[in-house]
User: What shape does this take?
Amino acid sequence: MRKSKNVNSSALQKCADEIAEWSSKNELTLNTGKTKSMTLNLKTPPTTETIKIDQNEIEDVDSFRLLGVTLDTHITFAPHVENITSTCRSKCHGLTKMKRYGVDKNSLVLAYRANILSVVKYAAPAWYPYVTENSKLQLESIQKLALKIIYPEMDHYEQRLYAAKLEKLNDDLEMTCIIYTQKKADIHCDVLPKSKPQQRRSQRLSASTTQTIAHHTAKASKCPFIKYGKLL
Assistant: This one.
């Protein structure tokens, strides 16, 4: 994977040769059939530059999957959202089948959390901060579909959310990213000695996290279907 600006093909080929040489010395075999090349470029279309390893050309791609997350050249993660949306909509059919066999609503919600929500939230801090508004709507549609299957008698999405004791999916993803960031900051602060500017930054981050959590709590308290933490 490479940035397209100020990088020429000879430099890239040299890096590939060094990787192949290191692998050979350490008795490791590179699978060139599974090796891909991708250019990261936010503005203009990437230029195709052929890279070879052991005389085999490496395929240049616009997106590829790495550890369960689909990366793309423009870092929008739109292909990743497409993939998980397709997967989760297929899994929603499982909820329909379970309901036909008489599974109760609480068990259906548990199944949704375990089999669908877990797929959406996988590695969320790595990709969710970069998605577009359209992708966020696409993500929210997953939860709307699942809850409509579980609670068809309710008319409003907010009613179904509180019946299932869930937040809006995008709010949940945002909170997941914030908590992850705060934990990483806390670990960093515990390991390394902090200068005064770092201390001030840590305090600002902690205050920002607290304000965000308070914001989400305030939004929940204004919902007409919930009062004092209980469903009406």
In short: Residues 35 and 58 are 6 Å apart (CA to CA). The longest helix spans residues 196-221. The radius of gyration is 23 Å.
